[in-house]
Amino acid sequence: MDQTNFAAPEFPSTPFLCVDAEVMDRNLAAMAGRAAAAGLSLRPHAKTHKVPEIARRQLELGAVGLTVATLGEAEVFAAAGCTDLFLAYPLWVTPARAARIKSLAARAALRIGVDSVEAARELGQAVAGCGVQVVVEVDSGHHRSGCRPDDAGTVAQAALDHGLAVAGVFTFPGHGYGPGKRGPAAGQEAAALATAAASLVAAGIPAGTVSGGSTPTAADADAGVLTELRPGVYAFNDAQQVELGSCGWDDVALTAVATVVSSTGRSVILDAGSKVLGADQPAWATGGGRILGMPGARITALSEHHATVAIPDGVPMPRRGDILQAVPNHVCAAVNLADELVVVRDGAPAGTWAVAARGRNN
Amino acid sequence: MDQTNFAAPEFPSTPFLCVDAEVMDRNLAAMAGRAAAAGLSLRPHAKTHKVPEIARRQLELGAVGLTVATLGEAEVFAAAGCTDLFLAYPLWVTPARAARIKSLAARAALRIGVDSVEAARELGQAVAGCGVQVVVEVDSGHHRSGCRPDDAGTVAQAALDHGLAVAGVFTFPGHGYGPGKRGPAAGQEAAALATAAASLVAAGIPAGTVSGGSTPTAADADAGVLTELRPGVYAFNDAQQVELGSCGWDDVALTAVATVVSSTGRSVILDAGSKVLGADQPAWATGGGRILGMPGARITALSEHHATVAIPDGVPMPRRGDILQAVPNHVCAAVNLADELVVVRDGAPAGTWAVAARGRNN
Prior knowledge:
The structure is a homodimer.
Chain A: E1 16-20, H1 21-38, E2 41-42, H2 52-60, E3 66-68, H3 71-79, E4 84-87, H4 95-105, E5 109-114, H5 117-127, E6 133-137, H6 152-161, E7 165-170, H7 182-202, E8 209-212, E9 228-229, H8 239-244, E10 254-264, E11 267-270, H9 274-277, E12 289-291, E13 298-303, E14 306-310, E15 323-328, H10 331-335, E16 340-345, E17 348-354
Parallel strand pairs in A: 1-16, 2-9, 3-4, 4-5, 5-6, 6-7, 7-8, 8-9
Antiparallel strand pairs in A: 1-10, 10-11, 10-15, 11-14, 12-15, 13-14, 16-17
Helix pairs in contact in A: 3-4, 5-6, 6-7
């Protein structure tokens, strides 16, 4: 991508998000191959890209279906032809949502997460009979949503009692996002899922799908326990994944193409700020993002339309008008800010993809 | 707003952003009154709301024009009928941008920021003669863009030398965003602008507009130096402003309406995460946002679709299905994530406003 002339008139004015399609294709194929080699189903999380064209490519490469975070995302991907969707979220089912779930279930195999007896009962009362299947969410250490692993059987039984089929159990090992935490989190993921699956079996319910996986933990996923992986970020990767060691620089497929507009001392200001890159910055991150091809540079401050980039000693100072490629810390957040992604293939512009599920938060 | 029944079928499913129009109107009138009483022009920054309906109300209340951050925003507000725009950003002027600037300048009085001799020359070479005026940006301590205050006359002279009229000087006292920093930042703003204005006068150039102001520093703006204020956030306010003491809870006009979907111990999970609230969290903030009507609650973690809220002891635990109103840390970031804002007046739904300039980053 570094040979691309982003100042060419075929490109929009900066800042814009750009996907290197070759890198992305390689990322998609690598994860598909890894899952297949381990005997695991792959159900990529589409919240990362929100793009039907990319989802189709993931399905062509063997994904069993997609994971989504919201009903709105599910509707976009169902409309784009995806017929197997897992809404991995403990929805509160209002009458309006129940109608949307039934409509979706008429068009696609639909799984929905539940993490409590109450949630299972409410979902059953609202939509039993429409074909929706339940997947029980368990907490493997991230301490967000999810029931205790040994309560999974009780929650599954509540779903059955209220007319819902049970497809299995899942967890999100989000606590793997930290230096040195990927391996331990994958271990806790496997332990929690093993307990949850045993809890279902003890209740006389087949364990079915045992679903885990995030991009950082995917490489360490325990194929003796899991049957399914749900990574999302791997399609593009981002600065967090580079800094966590779960990908290399050559695996970064999405950047914010930005222009130097000002400079002072050893810092330059780019025209891509938090309204393009997102503001995610975990405590362990080295800054507000990274710069492709300039590994020593650091984004030391982000405001809405300014990124302050410290240029390392020994590197020639970029000049006003120079174009750099900033790597967002968290690509899911960056993509959700953009209405379209500019695609580059072989260094040349290759059209755009609409971020069709952008902003579909409800 | 707390009497509003957000579960009523007239409202969309949560999460969504909601504006209390009465609170917003009061905020708009208060800032307009404060500026008028101080003899200052008000040029609100429209990047906060991105909504033409709100911009029109600001202009009806006496604003001299709008401030914007990008050409795309300027185009949206020009199309909505605003005829006086200040693009407070050191643009890199490509041929494509030059054409857009000329088109805008034919429809509206247009001012553009420059912060170096090079930027002034380049802008003049690209668009001199179309009527654009330059405002010289100076650094008052935020250390982002902006030249040294005593270089302002040199930059202004470069603009004149390249065929551009000079409208004045401006600064953004962004270093006022911190506990105890509002007053000192306002003092530095006034000192920098006074130096910059004197630098123009020493070069034989009238100081013209002397523009400063942000929501935190507006109350302390020095009317003996400034002639113009450019606050943005004041229209809605947010958790940062509450925590900085620049507004009270009753001045918060925008919230993310969200449903409790899960709970554990003394925490609940809301269905509004960083894709609704934004991820801005300065080091001094007490969390990822606040909860309206529950000042002791803290958002202890944000992921894309989950906010973990610690409920204070003594407060009844919200239950699954309860609706809460989360106050974003940084309202500009939250609004930029939404395609529309739901409006409430007298506690009842009163339509929606399109976030017309959302995502117009270039």
